[in-house]
Design brief:
It is a single chain. About 65% of the residues lie in helices and about 5% in strands. By secondary structure, the chain is mainly α. The strands form two sheets. The chain has a two-stranded parallel sheet. The chain has a two-stranded antiparallel sheet with strand order 3-4. The radius of gyration is 20 Å and the shape is globular.
């Protein structure tokens, strides 16, 4: 554990998993705030039919009874897991919990501060879902005696300001890539149930449908006003596509034991998830990343290596560690820029952008 996390634990009297969730780094899930007044001015009349259909579906609350432990919840002995796998499983659960709870906090704040009844209702419904997700993961952690103090996170975690359009791009991709990740793991374990080393994976199918619906909501918000996906904003869309895709791949390489236990080849898994997410994002984005471009995979490999060097430099510390950190960070920025400037593929956005989870 880093010295920073040790200091936080000692100062605030919290456990290791709460300190992990509290830590803010380039790769860790963040808490966000935005211009809620600007979001309050959204007008969804241009997508009225699709909007009303989606809100009705969310009001019906298809997963209202899903996030409860049943007889399908197998008892897990965390201590019996191989140490590397246990560490990476905890990292996966804490990272997932932080991402879910981040959405819960952001959406709840929009509902509290807004006056646009339609937008406030949407964010209230999404906050409800994300609270369930975070709570369910936390129950799994509590079972192992390592639950996260969510109240502490709300009060103490750093908040990053994003303009509303950045919230739409980033959260849309986060919800859709979350769906793709969960459903890919679920389908894999349907075929290989003996590799299911934790019962939480059994809940992924219906769970990821919540993620899909949330992504649909942000797709409709962007579709409601053409300015979000035209002009200079296309360059921002590309930035978030590259950033979200690259971040996922870097994070996954940090969990080799986790993927080995699932019997999942990380290269196959990441490629599958990115292709599903790219296919879905055609519903609203006018461009997509060319995942078959020869510089894409090569660039990702270089970026992963640069981030590994950054972590090594952090662990080394001292003046030489700082120098290595600067060199590795500069290299990471240069490689990311190279990925960004790979020509993107143009996409003709359909008039009706609504999709259903079908993977």
């Amino acid at each position: 554990m880093s010295e920073v996390k040790e200091a936080i634990k000692a100062k605030d009297n919290i456990n290791e998993t709460t300190a992990m969730a509290h830590e803010t780094t380039l790769l860790n899930p963040r808490f966000y705030t935005t211009n809620f007044k600007e979001m309050d001015g959204l007008n969804v009349d241009s997508v009225r039919a699709d909007w009303d259909e989606l809100i009705a579906e969310m009001r019906s609350d298809p997963n209202r009874t899903h996030f409860k432990k049943t007889e399908d919840w197998d008892k897990v002995d965390f201590e019996a897991l191989e140490p590397g796998l246990r560490k990476e499983l905890v990292d996966f659960l804490v990272s997932s919990l932080t991402a879910e709870f981040s959405g819960c906090v952001l959406y709840k704040e929009m509902k509290r501060r807004g006056t646009n009844q339609e937008i406030c209702e949407l964010f209230g419904l999404m906050s409800r879902d994300e609270a369930r997700h975070a709570g369910f993961i936390n129950d799994a952690l509590r079972e192992a005696g390592i639950g996260v103090n969510l109240g502490f996170l709300t009060r103490k975690k750093n908040y990053t300001y994003f303009t509303p359009k950045f919230i739409y791009y980033a959260t849309y991709l986060s919800e859709k890539i979350g769906y793709a990740r969960y459903i890919t793991i679920y389908r894999h374990l349907e075929k290989h149930p003996d590799k299911r080393f934790h019962p939480i994976f059994k809940w992924f199918e219906k769970w990821c449908n919540d993620e899909f619906r949330h992504g649909e909501a942000f797709a409709l918000i962007m579709k409601s006003d053409p300015k979000f996906t035209k002009g200079l904003n296309v360059y921002w869309i590309k930035f978030f596509l590259v950033a979200v895709f690259a971040t996922m791949c870097i994070r996954d390489r940090a969990r080799p034991a986790f993927h080995k236990a699932l019997d999942v080849d990380i290269d196959w898994y990441d490629d599958k998830v990115l292709r599903i997410t790219s296919e879905i994002s055609r519903q609203v984005f006018p461009i997509e990343i060319d995942l078959d471009h020869p510089r894409w995979k090569a660039g990702l490999a270089k970026l992963i290596k640069a981030f590994n060097n950054i972590e090594e430099a952090k662990r080394r510390g001292g003046i030489f560690g700082r120098l290595r950190y600067f060199v590795a960070a500069t290299r990471a920025f240069t490689v990311f820029a190279g990925l960004y400037f790979i020509p993107s593929k143009k996409n003709s956005v359909p008039d009706n952008c609504r999709l259903q989870p079908s993977y």
